[in-house]
Amino acid sequence: MAYFLDSSAIIEFIDGKETRNNISNQKIITNSLHLGEVYYYFLREHNKLTADFWLKKLDVDLIEPTKEITSEASLFKYENKKVPFSYVDCIGYVSALKTGLIFLTKDKDFLKFDSVEFVDEI
């Protein structure tokens, strides 16, 4: 099973936490927006040196948002406006759907949606 990782899933991967999703042997598939969130997390929680280290070290395949993905993500966010989804996560979710990947996240707001798995620590 191949996954599109949101920033929370990437952080779990970096932190080396074992998960039931078995992502440790897979290449990270994400977009530059989620990488930006990861970079910001390490800036906030550690420092620029650590953030730069992880940005350089991570081996990722990027699926960048297209006009179609961003417009569908906007529609998804609009249709679910009562749920506090971030726009970046909406883009990630739609990107995963469009490419046949499972969206891997810690965001429980995605609980009722198809093609989503949650980072589940062992």
What's the number of structural domains? Answer: 1
Strand order of the largest sheet: 1-4-5
Write the CATH homologous superfamily: 5'-nuclease
CATH architectural grouping: 3-Layer(aba) Sandwich
What is the rounded distance between the termini?
18 Å
CA radius of gyration is 14 Å
Helix content: 40-55%
Low-confidence stretches: none
Whole-number average pLDDT?
A: 92
Biggest sheet, open or closed, and with what strands and sense?
A: 3 strands, parallel
Shape: globular
How many distinct beta strands? 5
What does this structure look like?
The protein is α/β, with parallel strands linked by helices. The protein contains five helices and five strands. The two termini are 18 Å apart. The protein is globular. It has a three-stranded parallel β-sheet. The protein has a two-stranded parallel sheet with strand order 2-3. α1 (7-14) packs across α2 and α2 runs antiparallel to α3. The mean pLDDT is 92.
What tags apply to this protein structure?
single chain, 122 residues, alpha/beta, Rossmann fold, three-stranded parallel β-sheet, two-stranded parallel sheet, globular
Write the layout of secondary structure elements.
Blueprint: E1 3-5, H1 7-14, E2 28-30, H2 32-45, H3 48-57, E3 60-62, H4 67-79, H5 87-99, E4 102-105, E5 116-118
Parallel strand pairs: 1-4, 2-3, 4-5
Short précis:
The chain has a single domain (about 5-120), classed as Rossmann fold (3-Layer(aba) Sandwich).
